[in-house]
Amino acid sequence: MIILGIETSCDETSIGLLQDGHTVLGHVIASQAELHSEYGGVVPELASRKHLEAFVPILDEVLAQAGEDKSVIDAVAVAHGPGLIGSVVVGVAAAKALAFGMNKPLVGVNHLEAHVLSPRLEHQGCAYPYLSLLVSGGHTILTEVRGFREYCVLGQTRDDAAGEAFDKVAKMLGLGYPGGPIIDRLAQTGDSNRYNLPRPMLHQGYEFSFSGLKTAVRNLVEAPDWSPEDIPDLCASFQAALVEVCVKKLRRAAQQSGIKRISAAGGVACNSLLRQELEGLAQDLGGELFIPSPKFCMDNGAMIAYAGYEAIVAHQISDLTLEARSRFYLTEIE
Length: 334
Ligand code: KG4
Ligand code: ZN
Hints:
Layout: E1 2-7, E2 12-19, E3 23-31, H1 33-37, H2 44-66, E4 75-79, H3 85-102, E5 106-109, H4 111-117, H5 119-122, E6 130-135, E7 140-147, E8 150-156, H6 162-172, H7 179-187, H8 211-222, H9 231-257, E9 261-265, H10 272-285, E10 288-290, H11 294-297, H12 301-313
Parallel strand pairs: 1-4, 4-5, 6-9, 9-10
Antiparallel strand pairs: 1-2, 2-3, 6-7, 7-8
5'-O-[(R)-(carboxyoxy)(hydroxy)phosphoryl]adenosine is lined by residues 10, 136-138, 163, 166-167, 178-181, 184, 266-268, 270-271, 298-299.
């Protein structure tokens, strides 16, 4: 079964062609980061226009990589939310047109669900049940994944998402957008013990809050003795605080549930310290860690195709009334 997966929720236009759930035949992620970097964040109108321009050339490129034409596609999966509504609409309209034109099934996929399931694309050992730490630009969600569409959300962020905190701190430091990879790189030369930053809600349950951490960074940057030479130390200290909170919550969830398979997904799962700390956690638990390759952590079409694959196996097909949704919680998936 060959599934085309379409992702346009935010600022990546991405299409993947996936065979039998695990073989990626073609995959392109076109990032708009450069377009938005001068604004320090995504500009919705620019994003949707860019998706529209990029879609057909990217589809052609994906098919060329696979050495196939459209006739091999058995089903079309699309992320229909949550996301920037103008951007999601472009992907949904394109998916409907393709599915209708080719007379193939259309499968609507929740973008968050696709991230949560993404470790299973490459790692067949990531069997149900497992714990998922989804850390992206828009979301921070800890979930007990009991099965396909059996998601027990343990906790989420009350304010900023993990990636958003990285991006806002990078903006304060004048480092550019997206901030996560830049902070990750600078932190490698910094001292993470230099600044004692808050670890919000470290000892409380499964909820997250990163706005206080961000404010603590702002206070340091606005202090009279601040010097740009301190940037690597501040990046390292900030990253250490955020990662410690994420790992601690996942550890608590593993200990309380007894589940030893742990996973991380979303753009922040590319973070080198987070990956390293999660390896250590998996070892402590005597369990296993599943993290997608970086290209499948960030927003990507292959994960949408994968979630579409699981939906088809479970006979969950959509129809042409499928709607684009700006808000769409994991717990609202039917
Ligand atoms: O999953 P994603 O591509 O898009 C959303 O669904 O939000 O995640 C993007 C986020 C951005 O906030 C970016 O700064 C962050 O992932 N990110 C990182 C790293 N690479 C990307 N954050 C920390 N360390 C990284 N290496
Ligand atoms: Zn995402």
